[in-house]
Amino acid sequence: MKIALLSIKDLRGFVADDKLLIEPLQELGHVAEFVPWQAKVRWRNYDGVVIRTTWDYQDNLVAFLDVLGTIERETRLANPLQLVKWNADKSTYLRDLEKQGNLIIPSIWHSGKIGSRQVLKWFDQLSTDEIVIKPAVGANAQDTLRVKRGREDLQMLKKIFDNRSCVVQPFMSAIVKEGEFSLFYFNGEYSHAVLKTPKRRDFRVQEEHGGRIKATKPPAHCLQTGKTIMKLISPVPLYTRLDLVRTKDDDFAIVELELIEPSMYLRKSKQAPYLFAKAIDRWLSQTFTRT
User: Fold this and answer.
1) CATH code assigned at 141
2) How is the beta sheet containing 145-148 ordered, strand by strand?
């Protein structure tokens, strides 16, 4: 079958390894090619479209969702639009997961103007001298700021977050001391994991910001946390990345659940490209009726 791996027009500046999918898909009898989500193509010419390196979707979410809607009407889409819409806004899916009893990093949800008193109140509410502010809709740590009490740059905060939905969280020191665990699943089945650590004097773990990535075997209760969360996601995603951080109580809190365009770090596991390809093959075998 013919598969479109949804991407962007220019991946320069990003670290992507989805090319590792091409050969195992060929071995299973499929032809895959990378297609920018903004491309003017007939999506019905593909037997399936897999969202992958669409790492600019947050700049035009409405247009992105519109394209996905067109794709889903004409062919198979993974992950499905239903999950993408839910996962696109942190204030939606993280709240939902917390309501279901899952541990997230303590969060304050904000939209509207940013004021100095408000920023100071955030430190007190979260009982911390250091906070992280990130957009509710975002990717690759774009516009994510680490702010220390007494060193607030209100002008910068207003420039980035005025009238923009955001989440405010305490800075988790474990991300620097130990790292952030990423667990990967294909069709709901655990595949592999990596540990991501930021470069010196940074807090962002993405490779584009100098983060270091290594294969790892997560602690048993980290894997159990992942297993519990995966049981709650419906429909079962074709692919999932779950980012977790260790708390002071030795639990694991959700940093993010990635169902749209996560880097799957396929190069960090010999089996991962083949497991992903097999998951795609199984997904393609499902009955599909165009609408």
Assistant:
1) 3.30.1490.20
2) 108-110, 166-170, 130-135, 145-148
How many structural domains is the chain composed of?
A: 3
For strand 31-36 and strand 2-7, is the pairing parallel, antiparallel, or unpaired? Answer: parallel
Q: How far is CA 221 from the centre of its chain?
A: 21
The CATH number linked to 247 is 3.30.470.20
For residue 41, the enclosing domain spans 2-85+275-284
What would the pLDDT profile of 81-123 be if each residue is shown by its tens digit?
A: 999 999 999 999 999 999 999 999 999 999 989 988 999 999 9
Counting as low any pLDDT under 50, the low residues of the chain are none
Is there a contact between 88 and 135 (Cβ–Cβ < 8 Å)? no
Do 91 and 204 belong together in one domain? yes
* Helix/strand/coil percentages in the chain, nearest 5: 35, 25, 40
Rounded to 10 degrees, the C-alpha dihedral 128/132/135/138 comes to -140
